[in-house]
C-alpha cells in the first residue's frame, strides 16, 4: 500500500457543495481524506467546508466558475500554490439544458460544454501528470447513463456525457501499469439540483420516474473508485436501461429516450 494511503491524503471534488458531489465529499471526509472543494458559490463553499471540517480534516475551498474556459487552469495553479498533492480527483461538476436543439440558447450550451468537458479535460491533464510522476492516484469522472444513449431534448448534455465516459475509458487504458486508475460513474436520474438548473421540471423523466438518492449513487462511485474499476452504472434499473440500449439500434434507443424526456403535455 502506498504511504499516502495512511496519512495526508487529499481528494479534490468539483461541484462538491450539493448533490452527488457533496455526498462524495462526506464519504472522503469519513474515510480520513483532506478535501479540496471547488464550486462557484463562495457562500455555499464556506458553509459546506464548516460542516465537513471534522476530526482534524483539512478542507480547502476554491471558488471557480467553469463556464469560464480559463477557470480550470486557475484551479490547478491555486491548488499547487498550497503545496499539496492531490491523491484523488473527482470531476463531478456538470449541468444540462432542456429543450429542442433549435430552440435552446447557444451560449448556454457552449458554457455547458466548457463545464462538462473542458474542465474535466484540463484538470485531468494536469493532475494525472502529477499522479503518474508519483506513481499513485485515482480519478473519478461523473458521466451518466446519458453518455450511453442519445438524448432528444438534452442533445448537448448527452453528447458531453458520452465524451466524459469514453475519454475516461481511453486514458484509463493509456495509464495501465502507472499506479493511476480512472473510473467512470454512470448514474441515472438522481434527486439533485440538476433538473432545476436544466429547466426540466415538466419533463416526463422528472414527473413520472422515481429519482435516485444521491448518497446511494455516491457510495457506488466511491466503492468502484477504491476498487480501481473502470466504470459503474448506479442502480439496477439503470443497468437494465443501458443493457437494452446496447442491444438496440441507435435509432430505437434514441426514440425510447426521447419519449422518456419529452414534456408531460406531449
TrEMBL record:
Transmembrane segments: none annotated. Its EC number is 1.-.-.-. Keywords: Oxidoreductase. The keyword Protein transport does not apply. GO terms for molecular function: oxidoreductase activity. Pfam families: adh_short (PF00106). It is an enzyme of class 1 (oxidoreductase). InterPro entries: NAD(P)-bd_dom_sf (IPR036291), SDR_fam (IPR002347). Belongs to the short-chain dehydrogenases/reductases (SDR) family. This is SDR family NAD(P)-dependent oxidoreductase.
